[in-house]
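Milestone 3.1: sequence recovery, worked example.
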C-alpha cells in the first residue's frame, strides 16, 4: 500500500534524514539521507557514501539497514520505520523487504531510478516476501531541492 501526499508535516526523523543528506552533499556524495526508528528511538542515521570508499552499495538506506541490524543484533528489523529523502532504488527496496522494515517514509520521488513507485516496483512483485507500508512525499520539496542543487552545481 502506498499513500502519497506532499503536505506531510516533516517529523523529526525525516528532518534528521535531510540533515544527513546535506552532509552527504558537502562531502561530494549524492544528497540522500536515511534514518531508522524503532519504538520512537533512532537506531541508525546514514547518508550516501558511494564514492569514498568506493562502494556501489553505499546507498543511505543500505548503510542505515546495516547499522540498525548491528545495533539491534538482528537481521530482521521488524517494527522499524525507515525515513529516507529519496525513493529507494530496486536494490534498496529489496533490502528493505529482506529486513522486514514495517513502514517506509520517503521524500522525493525518483522516476529514473526509483524501485518503489517507479521502475521495478519491487513491493508489488509476487516474489517480494514482505512489503512495508509506504508513505511518500514527506519532506519532498526540501529533498528534491537538495538533489536539484547538487546536480546543477556539477553541470
Amino acid at each position: 500500500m502506498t499513500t502519497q501526499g506532499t503536505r506531510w508535516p516533516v517529523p523529526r526523523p525525516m528532518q534528521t534524514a535531510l540533515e544527513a543528506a546535506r552532509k552527504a552533499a558537502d562531502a561530494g556524495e549524492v544528497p540522500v539521507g536515511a534514518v531508522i526508528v524503532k519504538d520512537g528511538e533512532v537506531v541508525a542515521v546514514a547518508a550516501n557514501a558511494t564514492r569514498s570508499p568506493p562502494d556501489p552499495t553505499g546507498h543511505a538506506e543500505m548503510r542505515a539497514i546495516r547499522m540498525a541490524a548491528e545495533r539491534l543484533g538482528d537481521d530482521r528489523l521488524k517494527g522499524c520505520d525507515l525515513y529516507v529523502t529519496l525513493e529507494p532504488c530496486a536494490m534498496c527496496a529489496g533490502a528493505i523487504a529482506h529486513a522486514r522494515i514495517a513502514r517506509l517514509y520517503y521524500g522525493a520521488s525518483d522516476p529514473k531510478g526509483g524501485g518503489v513507485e517507479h521502475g521495478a516496483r519491487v513491493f508489488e512483485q509476487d516474489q517480494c516476501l514482505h512489503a512495508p507500508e509506504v508513505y511518500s512525499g514527506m519532506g519532498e520539496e526540501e529533498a528534491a531541492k537538495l538533489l536539484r542543487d547538487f546536480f546543477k552545481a556539477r553541470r
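Residues 48 and 60 are 4 Å apart (CA to CA). The longest strand covers residues 41-47.
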